[in-house]
Fold these 2 entries.
Entry 1:
Amino acid sequence: MEKLLMKGSEAIAEAAVRAGCKLFFGYPITPQNEIPEYMSKRLFQVGGAFVQAESEVAASNMIYGSAAVGERVMTSSSSPGMALKQEAISYCAGAELPVVIVNIMRGGPGLGGIQPSQSDYWQATKPGHGDFHSLVLAPASIQEAVDLVMDAFDLADQYRNPVLILADGLIGQMMEPVTFRQPTERVFDKSWAVTGCVDRKPNIVNSLFLQPQDLEDHNHKLFRKYAQMEREEVRVEEYLMDDAELAIAAYGTTARIARTAVDAARTEGIKVGLIRPITLFPFPKAAFERYVGQVKVLLDVEMSMGQMIEDVRLAVHDRIPVRFYGRVGGMVPSPGEILDQIRTLAQEVSQ
Amino acid sequence: MSPRIRIYVGAYGSGKSEIALETALQWAKTREKVAIADLDLVNPYFRSRESLTELARAGVELLAPPGPLAGADLPIIVPQVRGAIEDPSKHLILDVGGDDAGSRALGTLAPYVEGQPWELWMVVNNYRPFTSDLEGLRATIERVEGSARLKVTHLVANPNLGPDTDRDLVEAGAARIAGFAEALGVPLGAVVMTADIADQMGVTELYGVPVIRLSRRLAPAWYEDPSRLSDSRDRRAQLIKPPLMR
């Protein structure tokens, strides 16, 4: 397979095209502008279409419409823009529409800044209005971003549910070598799509259920899908966990920085490992729970004030103390800072 | 000595900023009053303005948006850039943003550049998507020249795959880009490679032009080979049963 050097945002866009994405609707915001820019040049080459919408709200309603007619469709944005997209994402979940959404996170709150951040964990995993979940995938390298985007389209079709790629600004802006695998040949039933009803009853794509009992039934149906995701779609990477007495929980770029710190701590004889959630919903609870009794302290590291830490704590139910280290506002933690935290915890544990 | 204004353009991510920084630091060893202008209006991260301390230490003047504006995605060209273009005592490197969108900033300065001694070096990495073949490169050059309103005078070969770069890959890429240069009738200005690969090859010149030895200044300190991350596609296999919906 031919290797290319690509920027994260470009690679995410190209992966979508190769997965069969024909339609893209977006609105510019740093640091993800390369995704719509790439799509604006590329989609017409594959018979697709690109529209720069008048707003994020419009773009996310356009993906609703495109998914409803059975097309593979994507939109992308960054943190404040994602907040604007939330309403239509909830509509997509309610109407069971397969859509792929990319969030390249920047610092907040408010307008914040344009440097990398992970402060949309809550927004991604505990999203918009109503009871619903998007399936959330968090890449830690450009290659992984490519692979997860290609998977995202299959997962969206399989579950008829929004799939969100959640990456910090560094994943969007960094350059790394990538290869593109062939897309899967999976065929998905789209007999529900509104494609013009000839010789069949009309299909209706809607999230409106005015009878309370119907809406409750619909919620239960959606949550059976989320339960299936929890059984079948959890992805997590564990690093040097076999004999670990300390463990770091981190995702995305932060996990790569933490790994460098783990390696350094290991050379000092500290038994420390790393648990890297790849799916943020469904969260890899079991990967944490299984270390109750072995790991003495968990250190959650994020480029936020501490969001994923809530899920880590729920996973271990106070049976392992969970500490936190985070940088925000576009500040990226260094391996040395994390190593200092590991050293302090190692000392505490040995006393 | 080459003309006192050297402009670097190229496709997105071709390596312009790293090469511009290296050139500035090299010039500072043999020339007086060296300045580098960060004209990157399109790229929010990994810009030459991030190397302020190292440039200051070498006595290179950095012309970039000051203070908090340096971290903004605003289209700012500081007025000192035009001053340096027109000051015959300055040795000036212009680090321009990627593609035709980035070159538009240069287009606004082209009228002032034209009357001065200048060269426009187009950085080419044949392992990037849009400049991997002659047709793609030709189209990119046309777009860049169109918005820069200046003609490319040299190609710079920067064949690399980031952390996956090795000697064979550099040799093959440099040969390919030298071929592009010949086909386009544009001379090669330099071949770029990391210092360790230049040492392995034992070269200071290639295809009759100097080798620029690069150290990656804008890469983050934590950066490591992504191949060490395991393949997420295999992850589902090793799952233990997650607890359900508690």
Entry 2:
Amino acid sequence: MTSTTAVAVERRGGLARFVRRHGWTVGIYVLLFALTLFWRSQTTVKWGPFDVQSLVIDALPLCFAACAQSIVIISGGIDLSVGSMMSLANVVSAKYMLHMSFDEAILFSLAVVAGAAFVGAITGLTIVVTRVADIIVTLAMLFVLGGLALAVLQVPGGGAPVRFQGLVSVDTVLTQWFPAALLILFGSFAVLWLTVRRTRPGLALYAAGSNRSAAYLAGVNVKRSRVLAYAYSGAFAALGGLAFTAASGLGDPNAGGIYTLNSVAAAVLGGVSLLGGVGGLIGPIAAAFVLTLVKTLMILRGVDQNYAQVIQGALIVLVVMVGGLAIRQKGKGS
Amino acid sequence: MTDSVPLLEARDIAKSYGAVQALRSADLVVEPGEVHALLGANGAGKSTLVKVLTGVISPDRGTFAINGNPVRIGSPAQAARNGLAPVFQDPALVPDLTIAQNMRLTGASPAAVERELRALDLAVDFSEQARDVPLPMLRMIDLARALARDPQLLLLDEITAALPSDLAERVFTVMRASRERGRSVLFITHRLKEVIASCDRATILRDGGAVATIVPEEGGEETIVEYMLGPEAAQAVVAAVDKDAGDVRATPAATGVTPALEVIDLSMGRVRGVSFSLRPGEILGVAALEGQGQDDLFAVLSGQQSPASGEVRAGGKMLKARHPYDAIRAGVVLVPADRLQALLPQRSVRENIAAPRYNSVRRWGPINVRDEGRRVREAEEALQIDTRAARQVRRLSGGNQQKVTIARWLANGFATMLCFDPTRGIDVGTKRQIYALLRRLADDGAAILFFSSELAEFPLVCDRVLALFGGEVTAELAGAAADEASLLRAMHGLAAEAEAVA
Amino acid sequence: MSAAPQTRERPSLRRLAGDSPAAVLTLVFIGIFIGTDIVNRAQGGGAFLTLKQISTTFLFAAVLGLMAAGQTLVMLTGGVDLSVATTATAGAFAVSRFGTEGSAKAILIALVIGLAIGLVNGIGVALFRVNALIMTLGISTITLGLLTVQAQKQFTSLVPNFVVTLGSGRVLTYIPYDLFVWVPIAALIILGLRYSGIGRMIYAVGDNPVASRLAGVRTWQVLLFVYAICGLLSAAAGILLVGFNNAADLGIAAPFLLPSVAAVVIGGTSIFGGLGGYAGTILGALILTVLDSLLTILNASQAVRQIIYGLIVLALAAIYARATAAE
């Protein structure tokens, strides 16, 4: 009776498993790469670093929005207030930063992110304590935060220090092909997410979304994990709002409006399952770039900007539909 | 033994779910260094007590002490801190995380878990996602995780159910090894042989309370079964039903009639090549241990799932149900054990009973209120449903809820009723009414397929009983001959003597 | 997951709110109305509690009431439709786009468009099992994009007189014409939910989909029906709205989205389905309309309105969640 294995786990090759687990994410990056090549071939004027910079500036707010939404979906919820939170961060920063020095602006930004995380945690607490459906709570928050944004700034206005704007629009790192905006994206991604991804709170967040009762039996504090997810969502949404401030140099109380749906789209397209527990932030970030690039390409080709909206909507529905069919097939198999 | 401080002492534990009292007042004492079995029929309160002990639910009343110190067990995490390590029938492993991540989630050291697995002669790829690992293996991993904590009390809840025998054997080795190290094991199982072979003492629950703590080796299976069933109660039920049903049971309907339900070589999930036929006016029992294919059999017959192979005939006509609607149209209706699967908890008794009437688009129009009212009233009267809390079915007692699910089919008509453990968690009085009702329905020409987890019900209710083991019909017994000894043998696939009886 | 069941008796008011929300809501409605009257007098604006104002309240509430009607049906099945506002916009736009071709044709086209949007939603949710939120939000985006493209084309926009009268006129000084649309539909929905097969099935599917399936209900049929009707009702709301405004723009119905959900939630229909009804929603729509008047009298900005709306929805949803909590 030595070293026998009664129920051997079916061994799969490392590559096959990698494809099965990360195939979707890799596919999104391949799609992004292919779209970039296509974009390059379509540009009449010489395609260069400037184009990359402008794409990153365009995509940055959506990237953050996608992160905000993805974390909540992974934890088994949904956050319809992402867009309003972005608007709020945007107008607050644009209103008060206008006459600040660069250093003050950076400190103020950190305060905005922390404040947004706090508001997000309150949203999460409301859901956990009142047991009202997450859809209703975040829909109500969509209006409350949107109202606050309007109260701060009724019409577009305000501004930000020039150097603060330069962070996303002009500055580059090492080579002019690498905009500083990307560094900010990766930096906040690493600081906020990677630090927690592999730790117990991070795992608990996935566990809460994957199977609440199994997580509870395993001793996970499911409620705390859900609140944490909404706090993260607030922080990332605030970053998105700040990115908008830096990119546009303006505060607009309606800036975030389109981001709620688009963030869900980027999350789903980026491989995050609406059932929770599956996915990461790397896929959704690429998906945000893809969605932005699709719009850029269509405008470049003279397609009505509004058709871009139609196509984006259709894309979302299609992606979710395919995902739903896949789940149904899986269900039948077992 | 009397001088030592018990490892775990639970006193006067009570827990109610709404109107159902799952635990009345249960006591459990586990000594250090013993393997202790927790036994009881379905509905005796076993699983509730386990949930209370592991902090999954909090009791309404009761106290716990570990090594003589009073403790509170408010959550699974708290139970773990008190040295209790549970292994559940449904492994507490999160499907979307890898095994290694699952270990880190609970603060278990992967190295220690791997060591325990090696001791169990198992090799596991820790980078595999839990959803890709077969269930028996997940249970073993869960066990290894619990062992890695070196708990004072290891709690094994039905872990050997549906575990291959060689793996089950390794579990027993673990239990013995724990005892030798002075640790204790609380072992919950349906398999009495395992109890006698491996357990030092056993506490037996009945009707929400502990009726006895015995040494299994001394009394043997008979003693355990006696305590589990409560001989007086069983006798009382027999007498009552015999009075209600009279001697009708002894005269099954004549042969040569078209069977109400005919199953030919059916396979699906755990069910492997099952054939039988059910005549109108007959109550056919299906006896089986947990997980022998009875769930799949009822799911196929009620149209919830399509069979992998084989065929089903209802009233002589081929029934290829792709949806419960098709089965219901063919007259085959289901009364499930879990009332939550059958009822609309927030709606009224009337709406619940009338629901199937409108399941076709053709019946979406205006309701004939008078006709509906009459049918519902008749069904309510036939079943003596207490309609005082009729506005929302969830406010009814369990027994009344079950009556509503049966009344639904009385009001809408059927030919064959599939009753899956219809008396689960119901008081004795209502059980008697249900037995009598099933007999009355059969006398009126209905065919009834009856599964129960309570063996005592078969001779009371059924004309014939099939035993299902490993997805196959292993024996057929006459209803009168289906006493517990024969049933237990047949349910374990020990068919020879049982068939001789039939 | 759930904590220990609470067996204590609920306070009687909360119990009343749980058992017969309509009575409580009627009181709230009257209370707010009187409150508005007092505020208006205090501000020197004269009485608010007049026949004229009551009539106006009903006139305003009809649009919200119709949109919330579809929302009620959808939410009774446990779903949500976030495309009601865009669908209403599409209906409004269609009326003004085809107004030159006669009111009958314009109205018909608007209703067909609404039905079509609803059917697409229903197919996604019922057959492809797309999350209702995503499906309706996605369809809303698509519809708005298509509308924007259409709006940029050259055409003569005209809201037919019939529609204007229907949406803003009154008969016998006090009775708004739009009640002739709203009242019959409301009666049909209230009675239909109680006394028709489909009504029972809507509750059944929302209360317990598994049990519905075991009772032989093909849930997809019910869901498809409900989303289609929701589209139709939203388009009808859009027709009244364009009649009231006498012109269509693409933001015409957007402010009604949250109120349409709010009216249903205030009216006591559970977001998880299976419990509630349209009578409560009607009162919810009336309460929100008076509240709107009150905020107007108080000169509240759009910002304050949004915040108050959001908080009210949250508070009421929390109260109902507690009042109706199982066990």
